[in-house]
């Protein structure tokens, strides 16, 4: 099992400059390697290979110990491989008759990460007071906000050093032994991802869009308007752009935090969680188009849910969401309603509920039916169409 742990770094001023210097050198090297490839292609239609480039830049590193030489060798190899990959896909698309553009040069703001192998120019360690430090070659020991301890049995494989909005982060990719988990014995639940309430569950609970999110989004809109009024190339525009970036970052963090807590509660409580299959959203394009405007972070929800469910022995079943909001979850009658209608009221059996709760009950129903017929863990969207279809015809 591979997991990524992300931490904020707190470099000193001198370390901050040293880190900037490394990224700058990384960018120069990337662009030089790109130029080499473009020239070779334009001049004699040939491609330069990764081993050729590595041989060349290895020598460059030795000849320039104060500039390129400051970069870790494995980081350079990683950079050249990144470029190699970009070129391979360029040639693949060319061959396929498409018109791909050359991989592009990286501008000052477009190059923000370096990769390391853990233990090679980069290592997590602890001082005498058990404070976490990240050793980075040619930078020194940088303070780490170690908010989440890495399990003892984990092995750190890969390290990505990142700069974002003038802050520094590391992402540690760690390998953990696969967990041995028994099946979760909790009850089953259906979850509808709605417009009005972000989540509604089949047992009648709804979660509204958090107020802080609405507030932050409103602030973002104001900042974006301010940015669009500023003249290009000016210092005032740069400042406004930085503010927009900061707000984006804050919203992402708030959402992430919110979904972490929400999905944690779900996998602690339930043994089977039925959700809509978002890959089938062509069926519900209208509904999800509206959703994407709101962007309640549904992708985040699904990703975190899958991730947490895996290590908790909880089953996540995705069902085809077609008609789930229209059919009565009590008697199967089709009760058509527009998006504005918040309450499901069945004229046939009298069942009344929040429209999203009704949808969540249908989603659960589909998942339970398919779980009975299909093998465990399989995406059973197809079964759902049939069982609901029958009540529609
Ligand atoms: Zn009914």
TrEMBL record:
One of its GO terms (biological process) is DNA recombination. Residues 174-284 form the Probable transposase IS891/IS1136/IS1341 domain. One of its GO terms (molecular function) is DNA binding. Residues 299-363 form the Cas12f1-like TNB domain. It comes from Desulfacinum hydrothermale DSM 13146. Transmembrane segments: none annotated. In the N-terminal section; belongs to the transposase 2 family. Keywords: DNA recombination, DNA-binding, Metal-binding, Transposition, Zinc. This is Putative transposase. InterPro entries: Cas12f1-like_TNB, RNA-guided_DNA_endo/Transpos, Transposase, Transposase_put_HTH. It holds the Pfam family HTH_OrfB_IS605. The lineage of its organism: Bacteria, Pseudomonadati, Thermodesulfobacteriota, Syntrophobacteria, Syntrophobacterales. Residues 1-46 form the Transposase putative helix-turn-helix domain.
